[in-house]
Amino acid sequence: MTSHRNAPDVDAAEGVDGDVDHPMPEGHRPGLRHLVEILAEDLEAAHAHDPAARSRFEVALGYPGVHAVWAHRVTHRMWHRPALRLPARLLSQVARWTTGIEIHPGARIGRRLFIDHGMGVVIGQTAVVGDDCVLFHGSTLGGRSMTRGKRHPTLGDRVMVGAGAKILGPLWIGDDAQIGANAVVTRDVPTGMVAVGVPAHARAPGHRPDHGQHVEDASELLEYVI
Fold this sequence. Notes:
226 residues; alpha/beta; UDP N-Acetylglucosamine Acyltransferase, domain 1; 5 helices; globular; Trimer_LpxA-like_sf; repeat; transferase; cysteine biosynthesis
């Protein structure tokens, strides 16, 4: 995936039931050979990212994050056929039960996504995830409203989302951004920045906030909660 800001407008195309229907992206062309190629890339990404992985065979058999992504590759293709939307949802629920990871069939997932550990990861229907991203357990790409249309975040390429982090709403997370563990992100994060805190603030890598910034963060959190 490239140029996520110029991706097709998901609000412009709706399915038969009124749900948002992403146009089939370039990286998701149908075809068994292309699908096998993408699945192999997912396997290689997990093997490359996890130093605990001893072999690709072990990853293929024992990594629920890989299994969840593989299941989504299938259900996402089914989702673009109105007659297969219900089976796609049911298959995605089976994947959720077996892996602990929930990915809506409508979500657009780029190539070589690695979900580490995976338990509790949630990716909503209108979310877009770029290429070579890494999501850790407990992370959420969620919405802040129940309205139809684009309501989940868009991640650029090579984004890392730490354990327990929540990215809420139709936000833009730029390429190479990093979301800290347990951060709650409610605003866009520019390319290459690090977002930490509750609510999260984007900072340059290596920047350490002063005491005044901590007080400001706490005040903003109270306003957000109240």
